[in-house]
Amino acid sequence: MQTSFSMMPGLQKMESWILNNPWLGYWIRLADKGQVQQLTWIQDKFAYGFTAKLNKQKNTVTMDMVAKLGRSIVVRQDGGDYRAVSRIDGVDSYIEKIFIHATGKGVSTKVNYIELYGKAVNNGIDQYERFSP
């Protein structure tokens, strides 16, 4: 299975962004013809969800994934939109997709590896990194 995350569009302020849970985590069930399935409450709170902290002075939100990406994701304003930025293979990049490969079920779930996809902030070049947590 693949776990993916999307940013909710249309939020005007960071406070609203945090209060409205702007990220969507979901499974893409590759073995079941790519069907999308929402994360369960337990998966969201203990494995694939995010914690978020608002920094009003910088007008940013720092997000940390429960699955321990080993790096933070900072959501900041870019023009009229908010974008998620993190380091991918050592380069500050706009996050486009996070893929988590996991096996097992329930408490015996094991994250085998995480893949980050994005575009470099400074030049738009595609970025990719695969690592084990």
Please, could you describe this protein's structure?
The chain is mainly beta and 133 residues long. Helices cover 11% and strands 55% of the residues. The strands form two sheets. A seven-stranded antiparallel β-sheet has the order 4-5-6-7-8-9-10. Strands 1-2-3 form a three-stranded antiparallel β-sheet, with no helix packed on it. A hairpin with a 4-residue loop joins strand 4 and strand 5. The N terminus is likely disordered.
What's a quick, concise take on this entry?
The chain is mainly β and 133 residues long. The protein has two helices and ten strands, in the order E-H-E-E-H-E-E-E-E-E-E-E.
List the helices and strands and how they pair.
Elements: E1 2-7, H1 14-19, E2 23-29, E3 35-38, H2 41-48, E4 50-55, E5 60-65, E6 73-78, E7 81-88, E8 91-103, E9 110-120, E10 126-131
Antiparallel strand pairs: 1-2, 2-3, 4-5, 5-6, 6-7, 7-8, 8-9, 9-10
